[in-house]
Amino acid sequence: MLTIRRDGSRLSVETMGGILTWDSVCGGQLVGLTVKDELSQHSLMRQGSCMPDLQMVIDGNRLALSSCQAELSITDQAPDFCRLTSRATLHSGAVVTLEYEIHEEGAMFCNFAVDTPAGSSFELGECSVRCAVDTRGVRRMRWGHYTRQPKYKRDYSTVHAFAEFRMFRAAAEVAEERELFPYVSLSLGWENTRFFSNHLEFIMEDWTSYNDGPLSLTRSRVATADGDWQARWFFHEGSTVRITGSFRYRNRWGIMYGRARSQAGAQADPAVRNNAMGLRLAHCMYPYARKGDTWPWVSMPIKQVAAQNPQFFKGNPELSRVDEALAIGANYMIIHQFWMRNPGSNNEPVADYVPFDPAWLKSYVGHCHDKGMGVAFYVRGTEMWHAYSSFFEDFLQPDRDGLYADWNSPFCMGYVKCSPLHVSAHNYFHYTKSMRRRVGAGGVLIGHTGNANAIGSACFDVATAGEFSVRHDELLAHPESTAYYAHLACTGGNLISGNLPDRVVFSSQKAMAVCAAFGMMSHPFMEPGVSFEERVAYIRPLWDAMARLPGRITRLHNPAYIPTRAVTTASDHLYPSLWQSDKRQALLLVTNLNENPESGTVELNLNELELGSKPVITPLDVAGTHGEVQVDGSVVRLKAVPSLQFSAFKIG
Questions:
Q1: What is the pLDDT of residues 389-433, one digit of tens each?
Q2: How far apart are CA 507 and CA 79, in angstroms?
Q3: What CATH number is associated with residue 214?
Q4: 393 with 367, same domain?
Q5: Number of other CB atoms surrounding residue 480 within 10 Å
Q6: What is the pLDDT of residues 611-641, one digit of tens each?
Q7: Residue-number span of the structural domain to which 422 is assigned
Q8: Which of 482, 490, 575, 650 has the CB geometry, 3.0–4.6 Å to 199, for a possible disulfide?
């Protein structure tokens, strides 16, 4: 959904994620930013403020773009995006051009330039932009940022460079460095959720100074003061320099404004869509590495870490493995990178996205389809050329099948042009949008990276959290950190699975309980020589409960991060998840995330569910779940639910 309205000097663009408003009398800058959730809207800008609030100190005088009259016009419009252009004269004939691009997924990018005409000359003392968010009505808030400094991660194949990030920061914390942060994020929760229902990201693509001078004259600062959370970028600060025309400074900044995902299906709006909702995923994780004495195999350095041995190819799985997964309850299959002729290894060597064994692949995918299972192929989010291969069109079905994109982030330095100087956030968003077009509105996109971000996942259904070791402890530490690191305020959530020494917790009862509590899933590995039943054991109670809900899941109610009238509880430790299907039935799971047994009640508003006349709540007898429950009309009473267990109820 994308709606454009004009009211005098103001122009607004509304999506399901929020409302953006520009004003020509304020230099064509943003004067309104409102985010939405299931039940309400939240204005995040104070009267009189603007973004990006461009300011310059010229010849000792502070000039603000907000004091300039601009020409603001719509330059392009389509059902899913639009473009606006603003031009204003700031000083001495210098023209500020702001080219905005707004997408229905909840993305706004602004290509901006300051052009100083030939023959002009002035002393520049400072140049900055600022994004300020009014947080006075916020109940819970956490923020984080990336830096331009690289960090590294080892795996069995090589050492990989990423942008350093510092997340889960409290409102009172301050960040200040002599660089232009490429990314600053803000997760917000209101009175109608326990944790975070909205997520904002502010992006700055380039690290360049206004006068092409030393980068030490740039600066970023993030702090909260007087109820405003502010991120400010200085393109020049700390000295005075003479600027002579003709001169141009340009950069691109952006805002991602996301909300919790609650709906599934091709008809769901992209801002709230999660087609992976409730899928019971079997991740066919057969070994894939191949080595040799010629390129590309010779380019793969092997055995960087003690915890993981090289995963050398040992052959394709038998078709009977599909039946094995189906018998346990799986309804979707992820085929890892062994399907490719050259699977690569995280960009070194690169993958070729050509089937290694087309006959086997066609029969395996066909067998999945015949059994009613969807299929997703492994691709890499940093290797865009997979879009030019026909593997999807030759083997998969749009609006049913999908892609599992590893490293889906513009901050992986194996991605094109990603460096301390530049991050191609705008390009990366369009790349992910092209992936959505490829799988179709009803298809499935699963992302996987060390730290999820909305730039990489806005067009996806879920972001699979838990890749980096540092995330392993923080992600499952307590419910708030789970909601934050699983990125539930912006996209659908998923947990990594695994059998490595540093991933044991992700194949544990705690992982299963967290998935049940937050309406997520995991993806147990199907490996050679190990029964799939063994790998699924940790999450089997959840799979068995989900299998009792007939039809396709269309909606999720979860008051931890999705504002809802359908289900409530006064308990601090019981977490209800309520799933609806297209068969006019629903499944309620109530999970105890406390360390001790917990008793309490959960109340349902059955009128919100549209399940027909007089729906009945029935406790389910599922192995591994808690059965000491009582149903009184629309109230569910639970007694002494053990830690990390849940009770299940069918409604209809």
A1: 999 999 999 999 999 999 899 998 777 788 999 999 999 999 999
A2: 42
A3: 2.70.98.60
A4: yes
A5: 17
A6: 988 899 999 999 999 999 999 999 999 999 9
A7: 281-547
A8: 490
